Amino acid sequence: MNTRTYEEVIASRAFREDLADLNHAIAEGLKRAGEPVAINGNVCYGHMQPDFHLSDLEPGMEPKRRALHLLAQDSTCFVEVGVAGGHAALLALHSNPELKFIGIDLGQRLRASWPPVDIYVPIVFKWLGDRFPGRVKLYMSDALDGLRQAAAEQPFGPIDLLHLDALKKTRIQEVEAVWPGLAGRCYLLQGDNKNGHVQASSEKMIAEGRARRVTSSQFQEIQSATYDVLTTGPDIVASKANFENLMGQRILLCVCHQDDETLFCGSTLSRLKDKADVTVASFFRPAPNRRDTNTREAAMQRVCDAVGARRVQFPFAVEEDHRRLRRFIKMPSEPADNPPELLRPLHRHPLFDLLSGSAFALMQQIRPSTIITHNQVGEYGHIEHVLLHYAVLQAARRYQGANVLSFGVGLPEVDFVVPSWPEQKNQFFDEYMPQWKGRKLYDFALSDEGFVQQDLSVDD
Ligand SMILES: C[S@@+](CC[C@H](N)C(=O)[O-])C[C@H]1O[C@@H](n2cnc3c(N)ncnc32)[C@H](O)[C@@H]1O
Fold first, then answer.
1. Residue 42 near ligand 1, beta carbon < 6 Å
2. From atom 27 of ligand 1, which residue's Cα is the shortest distance away?
3. Which residues of 242-263 are buried (b: 16+ CB within 10 A; e: fewer)?
4. Which of 80, 351, 392, 404 has its CA 20 to 30 A from that of 345?
5. Ligand 1: does its nearest atom lie under 6 Å from the Cβ of 121?
6. Which residues, other chains included, contact 84 with Cβ-Cβ below 8 Å and sequence gap of 6+?
7. Please, which residues bridge with residue 228 across strands?
8. 3-state secondary structure of 182
9. CA of 220 to the centre of ligand 1 (A)
10. Which residues of 397-411 are buried (b: 16+ CB within 10 A; e: fewer)?
11. Alpha carbon distances (Å) from 385 to 132, 189, 354, 458
């Protein structure tokens, strides 16, 4: 796989020369037709930006360019609806020299207010075809017709990257039109994401289990209102996360501390009793000098006994002061608004490999089909939860055999909800009493329990 960085691609002579040549071809064509040199907004330039061909790349679109670069490097066949000046195509084809591109554009100026797509789209199609022979296939047609045709013909095999960047109200129909041609898992890059119809289409597909939002930290760092990244395709539908799918499974629940299993998952564990094979592993020993240092493990054992789960306690990590960890993970002051920032590669933290290695060893031993763990915001903002989240995800990537879910607390949306069972949960909290004050401390303690499907396809 090609691993050139975004900076390397953008600064490369080959990309710069192609960009200048493509822009020159568009500009000359527009001038010949007596039109101003301005085109649709795209990943490189603003909408109707005068003399875009003489300008630098638009800084506001840099996050989307970075996202496209990452996605292109992780894909083999890229379909784009709305090629316009070919700038997204050009960046993707340069980001991954193995990538094939299928472009669809109506190429008709349906409204006088539109830029003259009828003039420059044919020029761009010809330029792309000449410059990348054997790597591009172009359909001058309406979005839905072009997608159906691309899915039927599959000139480059299954499609694993889809950029919808033309119409705003038909995104779901567009996904449906191309569905037969999709790979098991296909990235969906939603352009024009400030538009309400576009956002609503993403939410609907997620709610229906047809798509998932990509939540890996690589994309969090470059989040922007201009785009959204989902995964869709038959594999996503097949592994649709829901409570019923947990029945009969071998489940490994990885938590930091004794009581996390109850706080984030107590009702779910109760509902799974005798219906799934559950192991609960806590990775941190109780901190010394707590009022409940010596009672927490026994309390957790009683909870596990009550739900029929095995308990594993790892001895390596002790809950402690977080000064060193804060040099790796910067927790936001407002957890709801911002994800924690990873300041250094986590594997350089002395605990990370130990946690990830232990998790991996346990996965190999237990062979879980589902793994549940902390989420990337650390639920209510606990830094150790964030560390374990990444350690378990890394282990799950090595293990490969399990569907991974995270707790929903602290995340803006969840994939499914398990209704609270307050009586059961209260009994578990009682096991940790009288030292433990969590029921009053955590306002979510008796709420419904949400879970989020984790996407392991993109490395953090
Ligand atoms: C915003 S531009 C695409 C920019 C491009 N994706 C990029 O980032 O470089 C939108 C394009 O969608 C095309 N378009 C508009 N309506 C369409 C339709 N019904 N079917 C296919 N393409 C359409 C327009 O011709 C225009 O070229």
1. yes
2. 84
3. eeeebeebbbbbbbbbbbbbbb
4. 404
5. yes
6. 39, 40, 42, 105, 117, 120, 121, 124, 165
7. 190
8. strand
9. 26
10. bebeebbbbbbbbbb
11. 47, 29, 15, 20
Rounded to an integer, what distance in angstroms lies between the CA atom of residue 214 and that of residue 354? 27
Looking up tokens 């804060």 gives 326
Give 280's strand partners. 253, 311
Amino acid at the residue 389: H
118 close to ligand 1 (CB < 6 Angstrom): no
Going from the N-terminus, what domains does the chain have, and what CATH number goes with each?
6-238 (3.40.50.150), 244-453 (3.40.50.10320)
Mean per-residue pLDDT for 35-63? 92
Mean pLDDT of 70-93: 97
Task: Tell me what pLDDT residue 157 has.
Answer: 97
The pLDDT tens digits of the residues spanning 377-430 come to 999 999 999 999 999 999 999 987 788 999 999 998 898 899 999 999 999 999
State how beta strands 416-418 and 182-190 pair: unpaired
Q: Note the pLDDT of residue 413.
A: 85
Q: How far apart are alpha carbons 375 and 386 in whole angstroms?
A: 7
Whether 165 lines ligand 1, by a CB cut-off of 6 Å, is yes
Could you give the dihedral angle defined by the CA atoms of residues 69, 405, 232 and 168, in that order, rounded to the nearest 10 degrees?
Answer: -80
Tell me, using a 6 A CB cutoff, whether residue 123 lines ligand 1: no
What are residue 417's DSSP bridge partners? 450
Q: Using a 6 Å cutoff on CB, does residue 307 contact ligand 1?
A: no
Which residue's CA is the nearest one to ligand 1's atom 4?
42
Please work out whether the CB of residue 19 comes within 6 Å of at least one atom of ligand 1. Answer: no
Q: pLDDT digit string (tens) for 324-367?
A: 899 999 998 876 667 899 999 999 998 999 999 999 999 999 99
Q: Residue holding tokens 């290695």?
A: 357
Q: Whose CA is nearest to atom 15 of ligand 1?
A: 166
pLDDT reported for residue 415: 86
pLDDT, position 321: 67
Q: What percent of the chain has pLDDT over 90?
A: 73
Classify the C-alpha dihedral 40-42-47-50 as positive or negative: negative
